[in-house]
Fold:
Amino acid sequence: MRNLDELLDKYVRLIVRVGVNLQREQLLVINAPIECASFARSIAREAYAAGAHDVIICWKDEQFSLLRYQMAKKPVFMEFPEWRRMLYMDYAEQGAAFISILAEDPEVFRSVEPERLKFSQQAAGAALLEYRQRIMKNENSWCVVSIPTEGWAKAVFPQDTPEDAAEKLWQKIFAAVRINEKEDPLELWREHAAFLQHTADFMNRHAFVSLHYKNKLGTNLMVELPEGHIWAGGAEYTKGGIRFIANMPTEEIYTLPKRDGVHGTVVATKPLNYNGNIIDDFRLTFERGKVISYQAGKGEELLQELLSMDEGASYLGEVALVPYDSPISRSGVLFFNTLFDENASCHLAFGKAYPTCIKDGDKMQELELVAAGANESLIHEDFMIGSRDLQITGRMPDGNEIVIFRDGNFVI
Structure:
């Protein structure tokens, strides 16, 4: 790709300076697949140039993980090393920023027994609960980004050579994160964050008590919103006032649903990449907030494992609005990567709600959050429901209704 180095430099600078907005003398922790080593080192170099106190890279090897899942004894997956828990907690308590590179082969674990994956996620979720609570309460700045790996690029562009697939995926990623040869991406992101905040402000002013989703695929879902809910989007702020952008790309505004206030049926419109596997062609029926029935054309056993992860896994923790005509959707590419696919479509999330999406939620303990209407769980898994004909109607406290989405896009 022409000018790849120049575009990469812009991307790395964007991640460090705007994504986590690294401060002088701040620690940075990078979670990186080993296939992304060169990119991780580039982020580290930029972080040191920005005045980082130090940079720590935590490597992930999905091929070794596959080997371990296939050959280790099953009880191993019910364990989580104390040193790994302490690593994240120690750096989080020191105020570190966290960057995660999400770039896995979407079906790398397709041959693994689903129960092993479930045990591993449960063990990690329980061990890292306090760390994840800090992240979801924005006590630390954090950012999730992606770059092509061979397995991922070939999944997105299966007819191409590995080299051509990677180049095409790079082009799509740069477009999604607003990087080009001529413009300053830092300024473009400031403008984009302001637009998302403007949309969230509209939703917050109207204080909708419920949203009604309908389309011709079979979605007919009522989502109640708890009193004091907050719509967010674009930039976030840590408790210390550091402005950061948690996902690059992002096209969403989001809040939390009332835990026991979801009723009806919803049909997924894109595959869900879950634990190195694909769940596709699925629909769910909710009653008093809980999934009471489901079907999946592919990965139904995995969907069952996801929903049974803990009590909160079968309830929703997020409702997010994304225009069908968002830039990522217009690309026409199915990324098999939730970071991108969720920003091409309205989506919901199983599991834990973001405490920052309800008034004073960042000051509440778990039982207080549940009492306020928020869901608690060890997991948070997004799935996509947006469609070209999706209509969403919001009901206000006085009973009046406003159409928010028509034909898949905002009409506000």
Q: What stands out?
A: The two ends are 40 Å apart (CA to CA).
